[in-house]
Structures are given as structure tokens and as C-alpha cells.
Amino acid sequence: MTQTENFVLLNKEIHPGETKTVNLKIAQLHTMTELKIPIIVSYSTRKGPVVLLSAGLHGDELNGIEIVRQMIVEKINRPQIGTIICMPLINIFGFVGQTREFPDGRDLNRVFPGSANGSLASQFAYNLMEHIVPLVDYVIDFHAGGRARFNVPHVRVQEGKPELKEMADAFQAPFLMYSDNLGGSFREACDLAGVKYLLFEGGKSLDINSHVVEEAIAGTKRFLHHLGMLKEKFEVPQVVKPMICIESSYWIRADLSGLFRSIVPYGKYVEEGETIAWITDPYGFVETPVLAPNSGYIINENQGPIVYQGDAIFNISTRLKE
After folding, report:
1. Which of 85, 117, 209, 239 is the most buried (most CB within 10 A)?
2. What CATH number should be reported for the domain whose range is 249-320?
3. Which parts pass through the membrane (predicted)?
């Protein structure tokens, strides 16, 4: 069905068939330079869902920023029906400083739904929930692991939510992990607002990984095709292997400090007792193997060369869901 009304965002009108950049102005740098968060809105001539593609809640998670950027460049964000809103970079402060947090030290993804008069991070969260999310039906939010901790490309949803499982099935990432919402997260705030939210994780901070980017773009294309939003000129990527669903996982921690060398690639299935890494000293006296405590898939791999006793070095699946 053809739509004739304009799409309105932050008091700016986007006409049917138009793509427009709308700037969200919230704060300034300490130099008094005004910060603007560009929001790219593509409004089809035909009625349909509204999808938000967001990244950069953590300013050092560059993979997500690159994923959304490429979708804009390739014009995947221009839908056959409905509307696609792209926010490639939300936490500009963190991006400038190459850090996860805001200048006030807060994690933006722990202060939702925010407050109009709260901390700087809280005000950002509030504006996102007040002005953007109420217009949206679906959110795909792109994230990465921490520094040196590489996440295998996967999506996360809460168990017992069939509408979110349907999103994940349409996306078809290599892995699906069931996990509860974290308090104060964007994911929790969207859930409470009745907006369907899919969390994508892949790669590590301060890094752009082409494999992760390709997996995310392929999954997004499949999801948009599922909604009838992907234009026919784009090929729908075929799924090579069915998505593996993980019900629970476990962090393997270093028994001692030293030089760390992983010998298994992320995403690999390992057997209980298999050597998956070595921890050594600098002098050639100590070589200690790290053994898999159970059979499962390696979901997260510490790619740092040095570890301390107690550091998380692998996340391994402990139970799969049929």
C-alpha cells in the first residue's frame, strides 16, 4: 500500500521515497564544539515496518560502526517497503577517545532508559528512548567483545520470547546464544517498551574484522528479506551451516599468569580434555597447557599475548538447545 504521509523524526519531515540525514543534538565537547549524532532515515513509498540499525553504543566497538556504514554505502538501508533508520555511531565521545565509556566514566549501555536531567550518558539514553525508539518496530544493535576478547559472530535473545527467536531465525548468524537482559541495557529498555530487539556480537574492540562485518551484513539482508524490505536487486545470502543454538556457556580462566597462546580458532568445537592453549613464562622453564573442561564450542577467545591468574581466556558452550 502506498503511503502519502511524511515520516517525522526530531521535527524533521522525510517524504515518501526520500533518504535524509537528521542530526540529534545533545551535548558539546569541552571546547564548546557542538556534537551532532547523524541519523540516516530511508523512507519507502510503501507502508511497512520501521527498523533501526544501531551501533557504537560503546565508542571503541568499531566493527558495528563499519557494519552499518557499509549498509549505507551499498544502499541496503533503502527499503522496498517501510522505513530503515541507521545510527552508525551513538557514543561519539567514546569514539573520539577510543574508549568504551562516556567522559563521566559511565557505560551508556547500563543507564537506560536514562533521564532528561541525569548524567551525560543518562541524557543520551533518554533522548534515544524518547525520540527514536517509539517510532521503531525492530532494532538490530551491533556490538563487539572487549579489548583482546574476540566474540564469534552470534546473536543473543532472551529465552521464552518466540518473536525474538523468529528474528534470530531470519538473521541466521553462525550462533545464537540465549541470555537474560542486563539491567540498564538498551536491550532491556527496548523489551520494556515493546520493541523487538536483536543483539549482534562479533569481533573485539578497537578492531575491524572483515569476516564479522560480512556475517552481520549477510544476516541483516536475510532479516530485511524476511520482512519484505530488501530490494530485489540485492541477493539474499545463502546459509552455509544451520545456526547453532547455545543455551548456556562457561568462562575458562587462567590458572596462572604468563604469556598466552591460543591454538584453537574461535567457533571451533573442542572435546573435553583437549589442549586449547598454552601459558608459558618468558624464560623457557614453564609450559602449561590449558585443557577444555568440557566438550563445546569456543564462543569467545582471549587474543591478548599476556594473561594474569584469573583472567577470562575462553568462553565455551556447556549446553546446546535443539
Report:
1. 85
2. 2.40.50.100
3. none
Cα–Cα dist 95/213, whole Å: 18
Q: How many CA atoms lie within 13 A of 315 on its CB side?
A: 13
Separation CA 57–CA 68 (nearest Å) = 13
In terms of Cα–Cα distance, which of 165, 138, 122 is closest to 27? 122
Largest distance between two CA atoms of the chain:
75
The architecture of the domain spanning 7-226 is 3-Layer(aba) Sandwich (3.40)
What is the per-residue DSSP string for 241-252? SPPEEEEEEEEE
SS3 257: coil
Separation in Å, CA 141 to CA 63, 147, 148, 165: 12, 19, 21, 15
pLDDT, mean of each 10-residue run, the chain (322 residues) = 90 96 85 86 97 97 97 98 97 90 91 94 94 98 94 96 97 97 97 98 97 98 98 95 96 98 96 98 96 98 97 97 81
- At residue 216, the pLDDT reads 98
Which amino acid does the sequence have at 38?
P
Q: What is the pLDDT at residue 4? A: 81
Q: Tabulate helix, strand, coil % of the chain (nearest 5).
A: 20, 35, 40
Q: Where are the domains of the chain?
A: 7-226, 249-320
Q: Is 216 helix (H, G, I), strand (E, B) or coil?
A: helix
**pLDDT at position 164, please?**
97
Residue 103 confidence (pLDDT): 86
User: What pLDDT sits at residue 228?
Assistant: 98
The confidence score (pLDDT) of residue 240 equals 87
* Strand pairing class (34-43; 50-55): unpaired
- Which strands, in side-by-side order, build the sheet including 258-262? 287-291, 275-280, 258-262, 306-307
Q: Is 149 helix (H, G, I), strand (E, B) or coil?
A: strand
